[in-house]
Write a structure and sequence with these properties.
The protein has 515 residues and is α/β, with parallel strands linked by helices. The chain has 2 domains: 407 residues, Alpha-Beta Complex (Amidase signature (AS) enzymes), CATH 3.90.1300; 70 residues, no CATH class. Helix content is 39%, strand content 13%. It has 18 helices and 13 strands. The radius of gyration is 22 Å and the shape is globular. The N terminus is likely disordered. This is Amidase domain-containing protein. It comes from Punica granatum. Keywords: Signal. InterPro entries: Amidase_dom (IPR023631), AS_sf (IPR036928).
Length: 515
């Protein structure tokens, strides 16, 4: 790495001379401490993040638009602080939202597609309302894999028409993963400390894993999906992407809760919320007495012979040394079927659910240039230059539209098959071995958690020979968030593997810094 590149990164990650606060790896706790010491204001912090976005986004392409009202919201937070009227841990903290989460303000919600540019909802998503109640500053919208990666099987992760290809900040050729790619890239590159992503299958866990940040996918229903562009009521979940387990826990605590607009799911999941919230489970000795099941097959196969596998063995020793009982080499029944989206029926079912749910969502918008999936497909065909149709087709959207031939009985049958795979697979593994959590290397186990609506959290686990990040994933049964927080936080504090990107794109970053 060149000296000029080092200077460039230090310049980008540091505050202007005279300030004692640095953006580099700043956590919510760091930010609130700086607020309390009058080292920085929310407005100044927001300005610094906007400057980071302006400098780095042309290269990383992870932010679709910034909120024109962000500075005004920050100033309001500063006035509250002066009046000793604080709203909580997120008060004055900028938050970036995946571009599938409605804000009902001056920003768009488009899933990265020009087809939804100008669409308007009557009301913000419940999670956004909760963030606003907590005093957070809504900074902007993060890019994503267009239409949640459903647009085309040819489309690479992190690509959308509005921003182009999002890049992994650690390895230029590295997979940023999707669909919440922008949310993870922005946090990793210190363009924001806190972001929200959504997951149907792997869309929080995988981007967090690949970009060396913490991703927390809650039990389905723990966070409301109202006001979030849907795929599947069975599997959709909204969760935090941050740099630390503590930050992810603080954000989760701020966005959970019963919502009449998503009543059935949030009512059921609200029974899992512990009295006193989730912060109480941030314990350094959280691994003590835990029983952890290690599942290697098939998740570790792609890492065979790499630095990651050797590091994973070191992490297992850490788990034991921290007081956990490690049950190694466990197997999930029918894992080959579960991991094949066609054999399990997951993909055909998701396509059918997506068609129904997106049609309902589009019809309910206050204003929209398209009112159905069929109209989205037609829009794309009529605007090939705008939607980059010469680059990637829309076979995925067309396949979803064709599921109109499926009837309710077929969908119900597919749902029951998925439920049985979860009962006989992951649930059986957990219960028969009396586990507190399943532990896997990498992000592929996210599919196991997704089809059953189970929670999972990924924590940075290290970097391979090329500098590509990998994470350690902890998964549990529904409502297991307290145990997962204890385990993940204790593991994180013992290993502290996360580091900022510092050697990526040397020549390109030089050019951006000198422009």
């Amino acid at each position: 790495m060149t000296i000029s590149t080092l200077l460039c990164f230090f310049c980008l990650f540091s505050v202007a001379a005279g300030d004692s606060f640095s953006l580099k790896e700043a956590t919510i706790g760091d930010i609130q401490l700086a607020f309390s010491r009058n080292e920085i204001t929310s407005r100044r912090l927001t300005e610094l993040y906007l400057s980071q976005i302006e400098s780095l986004n042309p290269l990383l392409r992870c932010v679709l638009e910034v909120n024109p009202d962000a500075l005004e919201q920050a100033e309001e937070a500063d006035r509250r602080r002066l009046a000793a009227d604080l709203r909580g841990d997120l008060d004055g903290v900028p938050v970036l939202l995946k571009d599938s989460i409605e804000t009902a303000d001056k920003m768009n919600t488009t899933l990265g597609s020009y087809a939804l540019l100008g669409a308007r909802a009557e009301r913000a998503a419940h999670v956004v309302e909760r963030l606003r109640m907590a005093g957070a500053v809504i900074l902007g919208k993060a890019s994503l894999s267009e239409w949640y990666s459903l647009r085309s099987p040819e489309m690479p992760p992190g690509w959308c028409a509005r921003s182009g290809q999002g890049l992994n900040p650690y390895v230029e050729s590295g997979d940023p993963c999707g669909s919440s790619s922008g949310s993870a890239i922005a946090v990793a590159a210190n363009m924001v400390a806190v972001s929200l992503g959504t997951e149907t299958d792997s869309s929080i866990i995988c981007p967090a894993d690949h970009n060396s940040v913490v991703g927390f996918k809650p039990t389905v229903g723990l966070t409301s999906r109202a006001g979030v562009v849907p795929i599947s009521a069975r599997q959709d979940s909204v969760g935090p992407i941050c740099r630390t387990v503590a930050d992810a826990t603080l954000v989760l605590e701020s966005i959970i809760g019963l919502d009449p607009r998503d009543n059935e799911a949030t009512k059921e999941a609200s029974t899992f919320i512990p009295e006193g919230g989730y912060k109480q489970f941030l314990k350094e000795d959280g691994l003590e007495g835990k029983r952890l099941g290690i599942v290697r097959n098939p998740f570790s196969a792609s890492f065979n012979g790499s630095t990651a596998t050797r590091t994973f063995e070191d992490h297992l020793r850490t788990l034991r040394n921290r007081g956990a009982t490690v049950v190694d080499n466990l197997e999930i029944s029918n894992i080959d079927i579960i991991m094949d989206p066609m054999r399990s029926g997951e993909m055909p079912l998701l396509l059918a659910e997506f068609r129904r749910s997106i049609n309902r969502y589009l019809k309910e918008l206050a204003d929209s240039p398209v009112r159905s999936l069929a109209e989205v497909i037609t829009f794309n065909l009529n605007h090939p230059d705008m939607e980059k149709m010469d680059m990637y087709n829309q076979d995925g959207l067309i396949a979803a539209e064709m599921t109109s031939a499926l009837d309710d009985d077929e969908l119900t049958k597919a749902e029951k098959i998925m439920e049985q795979l979860s009962r006989d697979g992951f649930e059986k593994l957990m219960k028969e071995n009396e586990l507190d959590a399943m532990v896997t290397l990498g992000a592929n186990a996210a599919t196991v958690m997704a089809i059953g609506g189970y929670p999972a959290i990924t924590v940075p686990g290290g970097y391979d020979e090329k500098g590509m990040p990998f994470g350690i994933c902890f998964g549990g049964l529904k409502g297991a968030e307290p145990k997962l927080i204890e385990i993940a936080y204790s593991f994180e504090q013992a290993t502290m593997m996360q580091r900022p990107p510092f050697s990526t794109f040397s020549s390109k970053m030089d050019n951006h810094c000198h422009e």
